[in-house]
Design goal:
The protein has five domains: 196 residues, P-loop containing nucleotide triphosphate hydrolases (Rossmann fold, 3-Layer(aba) Sandwich), CATH 3.40.50; 128 residues, 3-Layer(aba) Sandwich (Rossmann fold); 87 residues, Arc Repressor Mutant, subunit A; 75 residues, Arc Repressor Mutant, subunit A (Orthogonal Bundle); 102 residues, Arc Repressor Mutant, subunit A. The protein contains 25 helices and 21 strands. Helix 1 packs across helix 3, helix 18 packs across helix 19 and helix 23 crosses helix 25.
Length: 642
């Protein structure tokens, strides 16, 4: 079976060999086994379902929450001559209907769909008519309430398996703890346990945590030390992206900024400049980076503490994709710890606030009780927050909670083209042109310039089409809308604005109830993940790389030798074994009570005083232990989010 897979790989993708572990995953799928693949970001996950789907008869159903990613993959497949389509919010109902029909009649090899769509009656009516050869579940960690991005609609995926009883499931993710791995297989009703996992270790990437009250100067210093390549800076809020980019530019380092609030064209322009090396540094919120595979990123800096180690690992991992030495720095101050706790509380607003904001949004969009289902509305979160006097962060988190309850979904501005499909037949169209001569030039221009417009939706650019008909953009849009009202065509106007999709009809706000898995259990799990972040930044004894590997269930006894912890350790000139023994002994003693220095020094027979003193100095410098007002050594209390 691998021979056929390699033929497909060469024919459609132009590669002669697979990346590590891709072939084993593909063989497992071709043998009909349910398979879980844990591959790093940029590790070629899409090939693992696209190749076997091309080998087998039928359609591959791809479930993914990332609209931008599904659109990008569909376009790439089509460029390779592979019939593919996606269904996502903001599409015209007629276009959605055509995609479902094409899937049912065997005219597609790939159908990309969001997990929320699996619950719609239209999908349920269509899926039984499809010949599905594989169900690929991207970002599969979203199915686990123990994961960092739990989404209840993912729990519905297993419900579609009876419609495709012979189709295996391929679950894909970049990061998952052992607990999440088990949960994924359980929730997707795996038949057997086929798990393929590459090591999380990145030997060319050094992780560092730096305590520095003057973060801006530290950031500037790091980029001035970077001899070549490019960098990424991650921050939490949009305003700071602009401020930091200006600071870098004013100090001679070319930089730009990126966040979801920018116009789609502007985001594309800035990303392209950075990808081409015309800009050295990208300052961004976490809206940036998904699907980015720039090989020469030498430096990733986090100016704020991330919410989870999973997020940190993925974002830091965007450095060093070419295998050359690179570094990730997390810059830390005491203020960060307070902010992290504050953000954690804002993530879980109380039920009264949730109901208030849900009701306000319904009023803001003029949606009546019982209305709005499956409709998408342009939604400016900042403007809404200002109008109703609610903090934008609280509004965003309320929307996240409402999405998990299946009520609404907020999407980023989409990089969509406008689309037109002439639904009238030629006779009706000709009759209309005779009766309404004012529309004749526009209709003729569309027929002349857009082949296939009478058989499917085609992309149009209003400015270009308007010039050909001597109409400005506004006049053209009004003309297209008039033709749609006459029933001659379907027109889907382009939007770069974020959209709020009403997943179900609007209900009375007082009826909103939050299920335990979406609130109480999730809050508890989030608390544990935040504590893991705190433990990571506070742990000055263990190699950073080893700490991350252990979090993801991977054992590695070797230190990287290059992170901030290891460099401090290297100065001691003591073996790892001796260091760990002395450190553990000191910890055990100080957990019972504080000790004066001379007592600790006398507690390790067989060890030289020089070695013991070096370890104690190290633990004092790294703030693992402290000296109190009575000159007694004691353990320094670690930060906790509780």
């Amino acid at each position: 079976m691998s021979n056929k897979a390699r033929e497909v790989l060469t024919r459609y993708w132009g590669y002669s060999t697979f990346r590590p572990m891709q072939e084993e995953i593909i063989d497992s799928v071709l043998f009909g086994r349910d398979t879980l693949a844990l591959l790093p970001t940029g590790g070629g996950k899409s090939i693992c379902f696209q190749v076997p789907a091309m080998v087998m008869d039928g359609l591959c159903l791809v479930v993914t929450p990332l609209i931008a990613l599904m659109k990008d993959q569909v376009e790439q497949l089509r460029r390779r001559g592979i019939p593919a389509a996606a269904i996502y919010s903001g599409m015209h109902n007629l276009e959605i209907e055509r995609v479902y029909n094409n899937a049912a009649f065997g005219q597609l090899k790939f159908l990309y769909i969001s997990p929320e769509r699996l619950q719609t009656q239209r999908f349920i009516d269509s899926v039984g008519k499809m010949h599905i050869n594989l169900i690929a579940v991207d970002e599969s960690h979203c199915i686990s309430q123990w994961g960092y991005d739990f989404r209840p609609p993912y729990l519905k995926i297993a419900e579609i398996r009876p419609y495709a009883p012979k189709a295996p499931v391929l679950a894909l993710t970049a990061t998952a703890t052992p607990e999440v791995v088990e949960d994924i297989m359980d929730k997707l009703k795996f038949n057997g346990r086929q798990v393929f996992q590459t090591s999380y270790e990145r030997k060319n990437l050094v992780y560092n945590v730096i305590d520095d009250a003057d973060k801006m100067s530290a950031m500037l210093r790091l980029f001035r030390q970077m001899p070549h390549g490019s960098g990424v800076i991650y921050v939490r809020n949009r305003r700071r992206t602009r401020e930091m980019a200006e600071y870098l530019n004013n100090n001679g380092i070319s930089a730009t900024y990126y966040h979801a609030g920018l116009d789609g064209k502007e985001r594309d322009k800035r990303q392209l400049m950075w990808m081409r090396g015309q800009t050295k540094v990208m300052v961004a919120t976490n809206a940036f980076g998904m699907g980015i595979d720039k090989p020469d990123v030498r430096l990733v800096i986090h100016m704020d503490l991330p919410d989870t180690l999973e997020a940190y690992f993925q974002e830091a991992g965007r450095a060093g994709r070419d295998g050359n030495d690179s570094a990730a720095y997390l810059l830390l101050s005491l203020e960060d710890i307070r902010n992290l706790k504050s953000n954690f509380e804002a993530t879980f607003p109380d039920i009264k606030t949730i109901r208030l904001i849900y009701q306000a949004i319904g009023n803001y969009l003029n949606i009546p009780i019982g209305g709005g289902a499956d409709r998408a509305y342009d939604f400016d979160l900042q403007l809404f927050s200002q109008t109703y006097g609610q903090p934008a962060l609280v509004v965003f988190n309320v929307l996240q909670l409402l999405e998990r309850e299946g009520l609404v979904m907020l999407t980023d501005g989409l990089k969509n083209h406008s689309k037109v499909y002439i639904v009238a037949n030629r006779d009706d169209l000709y009759r209309f042109q005779v009766e309404q001569p004012a529309f004749d030039p526009l209709i003729k221009s569309m027929l002349r310039n857009y082949p296939g417009i009478m058989t499917d939706f085609v992309n149009v650019v209003e400015e270009d089409l308007g010039r050909k008909c001597n109409l400005n953009s506004e006049q053209l849009v009004q003309s297209l809308k008039s033709l749609e009202r006459f029933g001659l065509l379907a027109y889907q106007q382009r939007t770069d604005k974020p959209q709020l999709v009403w997943l179900s009809e609007r209900i009375d706000a007082n009826q909103i109830r939050l299920s335990p898995e979406n609130y109480a259990s999730r809050k508890q799990a989030a608390s544990r993940r935040l504590q893991a972040v705190m433990d990571f930044v506070n742990n000055k004894e263990h190699c950073r790389s080893r700490q991350l590997l252990e979090y993801f269930g991977e054992k590695n006894e070797k230190r990287c030798g290059r992170c901030d912890v290891c460099l401090k350790r290297n100065e001691l000139q003591i073996s790892d074994f001796e260091f760990m023994q002395i450190t553990q002994g000191i910890r055990t003693m100080l957990q019972r009570r504080p000790y004066p220095l001379y007592e600790l020094m006398a507690s390790f027979p067989g060890r030289t005083e020089e070695k013991i003193l070096k370890v104690i100095r190290y633990l004092l410098e790294t703030k693992v232990i402290m000296k109190d007002d009575n000159d007694l050594l004691r353990l320094k209390l670690q930060q906790s989010i509780s």
